[in-house]
What we know:
The protein has about 325 residues and is α/β, with parallel strands linked by helices. It has 2 domains: about 5-130 and about 310-330, NAD(P)-binding Rossmann-like Domain (Rossmann fold, 3-Layer(aba) Sandwich), CATH 3.40.50.720; about 135-310, Dihydrodipicolinate Reductase, domain 2. Helix content is about 30%, strand content about 25%. The protein has helices spanning about 5-10, 20-30, 80-90, 130-150, 165-180, 200-220, 255-260, 310-325, and strands at about 10-15, 40-45, 50-55, 55-60, 60-65, 75, 95-100, 110, 125-130, 150-160, 230-235, 240-250, 265-270, 285-295, 300-305. The strands form 3 sheets. The chain has a 7-stranded parallel beta sheet. A 6-stranded mixed beta sheet has the order 11-10-12-15-14-13. Strands 3-4 form a two-stranded antiparallel ribbon. Helix 2 (about 20-30) packs across helix 8 and helix 4 (about 130-150) packs across helix 8 (about 310-325). The longest helix has 19 residues, at about 200-220. The protein is globular and about 60 Å long.
Amino acid sequence: MNAQRLRKSPNIAIVGSTSLLGKELQDVLDARGLPVGRLSLLETEEYAGLLQEFAGEIQITQVIAPSAFDDIDIAFFACSPEIMKSYMASGAKFPELTIDLTQAGQSGTIYLQGISDTRLLKSHGYFVNPHPAAIAIGRILSSLHNTFVVQSATITLLEPASERGNAGVDELQEQTVNLLNFQQVQSKLFTGQLAFNILSETGASESTESRILEQLGAILGRTVPKPTITALQVPVFHSHTYVMSVSLLESPPVEDLLAHFARSAAFSVDKSVSGPSPVAVVGSDKIHVGRVRFVDSGLCEIFAVADNLRVAASNAVQMAEHIMLAPALDV
């Protein structure tokens, strides 16, 4: 790693560059105008040599290997958890500055922009990007608690196929096409027919719920009460949907709650009749708040939607930006 280059124009590697998350990272890097010295797009041997475009230039995909990280200042891991676990099992070392978006369970420093202490960020280390649902839930609960005091929260999380990567999107698409053509449905990744259906996905859901709760504990500490989360797999391609019941200390007017969210750059309030939807928020890094109502004294229900890929990629890039701006933090 070159400390001076890290501050001005770092060499960046994206592991899993052809994944949905890897492509989103490239889009966010380009959209935010983060200065990049050299970009290395890394993949498994199957995708080696593939041509990809970044910032108007053609890049050749390279094979994931320790040597590929030579002279790299920031490495984003956006590959599948399986590929990440395989890399860890190989005993290969991680780059000095690694940002992990894979949710493979590797321990590291968890950081959520706008909530976590920026002093956690150093110019070297292993940083874990929170699960996209932990990002959205963490921001909602923290925002509410700081002003209205959260006493408890129960959340139903509707997960899109894209949380399972390219394979999840492909399987949902294939199932949908087969059903519309009166053909047999194949289930390789999901536990059953997802198209036009909802799956409890017990094993996967429990793993997701545990990971989100663990990360929320690291992000929010004991300040905000730990929520109850139930994850369900729904037949949409992108974006998380949140149905939240939050018990507040008092019952402020609904307009005050909506105005509170609207004042934060992290949120977008949609007061239209249809409200925000998974399709409508694709490409946005904001949490879109729709219907809010009180069903009892202090107990409010909140409907919110967020692009799972975009919020994850945006948080990871913002993490890198903070490290670039203050690499002397670890001196």
